């Protein structure tokens, strides 16, 4: 079984608190899939405003957690760790669906599979669940570039560094 702890995860992702949303990799298979977890705690910054009386993890952050998990899988598949100039760009999300709220105390289990890699574009099928219940699902697309290769005219909706 291939696992990664938080210190190993930090070698593959540039994100840090409060934006690092992967706590542990439970298993991964190069070129195929990865399973990771995000322990959702009441101390998360976003719960102060989303929502104070009924804290719920924002859907966009669930998608971000899946994308970070996908990025780890991509680097593991390539057999390399990113350097300081490597950026992962989120290119698209298709079919995103939110099936249940994720609340403090939940453990979001994220499962990501590589669908295909073509011309530097990675496509993944991703889902997150809590206690075996589907919470979020969708297809994600990302690409990797070095800071020097970043085009000035990124597609609409693309966020640098994600």
Automatic annotation (TrEMBL):
It comes from the Bacteria. GO terms for biological process: fatty acid biosynthetic process; lipid A biosynthetic process. The keyword Lyase applies. It catalyses: a (3R)-hydroxyacyl-[ACP] = a (2E)-enoyl-[ACP] + H2O. Keywords: Cytoplasm, Lipid A biosynthesis, Lipid biosynthesis, Lipid metabolism, Lyase. GO terms for cellular component: cytoplasm; membrane. One of its GO terms (molecular function) is (3R)-hydroxyacyl-[acyl-carrier-protein] dehydratase activity. Belongs to the thioester dehydratase family. FabZ subfamily. It is found in: Cytoplasm. Its main location: cytoplasm. The gene is fabZ. This is 3-hydroxyacyl-[acyl-carrier-protein] dehydratase FabZ. The keyword Lipid metabolism applies. Its EC number is 4.2.1.59. Involved in unsaturated fatty acids biosynthesis. Catalyzes the dehydration of short chain beta-hydroxyacyl-ACPs and long chain saturated and unsaturated beta-hydroxyacyl-ACPs. The active site is at residue 50. Transmembrane segments: none annotated.
């Amino acid at each position: 079984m291939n696992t990664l702890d938080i210190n190993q995860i930090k070698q593959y992702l540039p994100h840090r608190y409060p934006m690092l949303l992967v706590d542990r990799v439970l298993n991964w298979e190069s070129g195929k899939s990865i399973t990771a977890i995000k322990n959702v705690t009441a101390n998360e910054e976003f719960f102060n405003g989303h929502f104070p009386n009924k804290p719920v993890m924002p859907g966009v952050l669930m998608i971000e957690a899946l994308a970070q998990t996908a990025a780890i899988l991509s680097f593991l598949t390539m057999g390399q760790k990113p350097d300081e100039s490597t950026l992962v760009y989120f290119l698209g999300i298709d079919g995103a669906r939110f099936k249940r709220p994720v609340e403090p105390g939940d453990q979001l289990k994220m499962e990501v599979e590589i669908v295909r890699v073509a011309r530097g574009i990675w496509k993944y099928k991703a889902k997150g669940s809590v206690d075996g219940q589907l919470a979020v699902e969708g297809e994600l697309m990302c690409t990797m570039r070095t800071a020097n290769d970043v085009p000035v005219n990124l597609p609409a909706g693309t966020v640098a560094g994600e």
